[in-house]
Amino acid sequence: MIKSLSATWYFWLFPFFAIGISGYLLYEYLETRGPEIKIRFEEGSRIRPDKTEIRFRGVRVGVVTAVRISHDKKDVEIIARLEKHASDFANEGTKFWLETPRVSFEEIRGLDTLVEGSYISAVPGSGGKTENFEGRIGTDLKNPLEETAMFKLEALRLDSVSDGDTLFYRGMNVGTVTKVTLSKTGQTINVQIRVPWEYARLIRTNTVFWRKAGFQAKLGLFNSFVKMNSVDALLRGGIEFATPTNAGAKAKAGTTFVLLGDAPKEMEKWNPVLQ
Fold this sequence. Notes:
Elements: H1 2-11, H2 13-32, E1 33-41, E2 53-56, E3 59-69, E4 76-83, E5 95-98, E6 102-103, E7 108-109, H3 113-116, E8 120-123, E9 132-137, E10 148-155, E11 166-169, E12 172-182, E13 189-196, H4 197-200, E14 208-211, E15 215-218, E16 225-228, H5 231-236, E17 238-242, E18 256-260
Parallel strand pairs: 1-9, 2-8, 5-9, 10-18, 11-17, 14-18
Antiparallel strand pairs: 1-4, 2-3, 3-4, 5-8, 6-7, 10-13, 11-12, 12-13, 14-17, 15-16
């Protein structure tokens, strides 16, 4: 009888051991996981819960846990859980973009997504803590860590400009077209351009933008010319800009400009000092 009671006493210790171990594992789990964040994208066809990772320099810093339509039905909202060591990615100013395959005349990037699936790249910000972010599909930055300024152009029609085209200043590549969309009213075409901060000073409040044609010709009896631009512009087109000699103040990021079909006639005389 005594041995039977002793065996029963030991038997009741097992549930307490199980509860203790479960509690310890739960504590370890809560201590090692980072904050939860929400990122909005225009679309989410390549994002998979529990599979799509968030990476920084190729290292996992988080993973997508859920994908849903935003409350306003305009975007896709993903829920992601960051790693404990990556809490800084929950700061304001953090950039997120979905890596996609990209093959152009200037670069080949994102081909690893064809093998291992899409993932979200991130660059940490330095602001205060937040849980809401705006993401984008792909990036045209050769160096994603490079700071850039975004501007918008509006045109009535578009003949030779598309995503990935080059932005030229005096024939030099100083930026990229990142998005071409139709306005909500359908009356204009919106063109988003990205310019590295080192060149953002070139864009002033009175800067003029126009479509850059790869091949230009004017045939007349006494006044004829044929002009061919760079191979890049010839094959893909692009956008060029210039600023009058009396340059205005530096344009703020996000400023909207009109995109002309041709260069201004007086543009050849412009020679501003832009510092």
